[in-house]
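It is worth pausing here to work through a concrete case rather than discussing structure prediction in the abstract. The textbook approach is simple: state the sequence, then state the predicted structure, then interpret. We follow exactly that order.
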Amino acid sequence: MGLIRTLPKNICIAEDSQMASNKMDKLLTSANKGLDVLLALHDDLGEIPTNCEEINLTWLTNKVNAQIESIQNYPLPKATKCEMLKEWASTEQTAKQAIEQVQELYTLPHHPKFEIQDQQIICTNYKEWLERMSTYTADKVFIEHYRLICNVLESIDKLRYYEKKNNIPKRMIDKIQSRITSPEAYLQLTAIGYFTKEPTTDQNCRRFPYIYSYQ
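Step two, the predicted structure:
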């Protein structure tokens, strides 16, 4: 079979890359809708922070509290003040939902960075982030496991050669014979939990991307 006996330190998992890309696209779309809402509230909230991380509930609370204090100090009838405060409560709720959409970007792992450019939120380190999200490193226990499998597969090749040479009917040995075609292929199998009795959620996501891709 001639397999390389040394496993690489890590490989890129295409399924992880696709799911991470889908997740980023989904959250960016939602965050930009939230930003649009905040920009539309410019007359009430004033300038929106240019740093995405500063678009948070603390910023909103400070804005709202300042407005409430101003309203309470206005020389206006009590009923008018109450109506203005109700309007601000509605504005605050709308802005809060929009801010939560923006802040959800920061729930993504591996530290993506975001900026606002031309009134749109973009990920400025997308390539590096996607690479980190799709890099898989196998547990050390699989190094010896792979070496032993290579020995088995080499023996299978010798057996098949002998069978062919001597016209002996070939019998199926194990499904992994056709699956392990390279060190990377072996790591792919470990990544999807092929050698694990109870695959993790991540492993199932890789194994069944058509189910998990858009969750």
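Step three, interpretation. The chain has a mean pLDDT of 89. The chain has two domains: 16-132, 134-212.
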